[in-house]
Amino acid sequence: MLYLFSSEKLRGMKIESWMFREPGAPMALEEREEAPASGEVLVRVAGCGVCHTDLGFFYDGVPTRHPLPLALGHEISGTVVEAGEGAEAWAGKQVVVPAVIPCGRCRACKDGEGSICPHQIFPGNDVHGGFGTHVRVPAAGLCAVPDLADPGVNRAGLDLPALSVIADAVSTPYQALLRCELRAGDLAVFVGAGGVGGFGVQLAAAMGAHVVAIDVDAARLEALVDCGAHLRLSASELDFRALKASVKEFASEHDVPTWRWRIFDTSGTPAGQATAFGLLGKGSYLGVIGYTPKKVELRLSNLMALDATARGNWGCLPEHYPAAVGFALRGEIRLEPFVERRPLSSINQTFAAVQDHQVCRRVILTPES
Length: 369
What we know:
About 25% of the residues lie in helices and about 25% in strands. The protein is built from ten helices and 16 strands. The strands form three sheets. Strands 3, 5, 6, 7, 8, 15 and 16 form a seven-stranded mixed beta sheet that branches. The chain has a six-stranded parallel beta sheet with strand order 11-10-9-12-13-14, with helices on both faces. A three-stranded antiparallel beta sheet has the order 2-1-4, with no helix packed on it.
């Protein structure tokens, strides 16, 4: 990835970021100079979402690819304030920064496998992320935001900070739905109805699927009553057999055969992953979106016996971002009821609150002007 950052930079701008120095230690605001090199831009951050991946780095010691200290944060929206050579066309544009930015030039990218690009840039992992005033990233893959002042375009009335969650919480399940070739009338089951799962529920419903949401949190399920979850099942009240029986009954009511079941783990927990795997029927598809470092015991031969498919999903290719933004701006999925804004200066308190499950919405940290 070094070639993306090896060119001579422009004169630096002083920026501030909250730096992560060691797991669990409070992050501190630090100043440095940044300037875009050839093919890069400097984005003034409007908002940066707090993802459970950030918590994994901060609390669980999940290693980052960039050595510490590092600014975390990969759900970023903002405005390009400086552009390096070759990226001048981006100057002044409002953008969503993809959480995973492929290089676009390697063999994997040319074969359509940009999600596993060996040179990919993941802000807040490979390079400094968005928990700061600015972030420096490659221009390749940026998603230009349409004119938010145009009510014909922005029918949902969203602002730029709200769009930050599209960078991961919306775009990642969207790519997973595209990969399984979801069609209208299919069954889509989301095990875990938090940030990623909740937006996945909405997207699947907008694409015409019959949608089931499963979670241990009653409040999460209640929030999705009018947002696409046609059937809501509490994993804290029902055992696995009862959950599976309810899913089968729902699918039968809508005449959906098992080979049109699309099941997604968006819980990132061993119990959730075991549940998602156990729901597979003949010819069903399992998409693994949630992450846990813990092991899960499964009978993998079920995939053979059921002729089923399981596939992971890492991020979202940049070419899918405009469509994901469109779903939000048209109001086909709702962002505002599922996000809350907090000042960036509250980052340490916010991380603690999210880690302790005191927050039920996706938090967007916004730099103070």
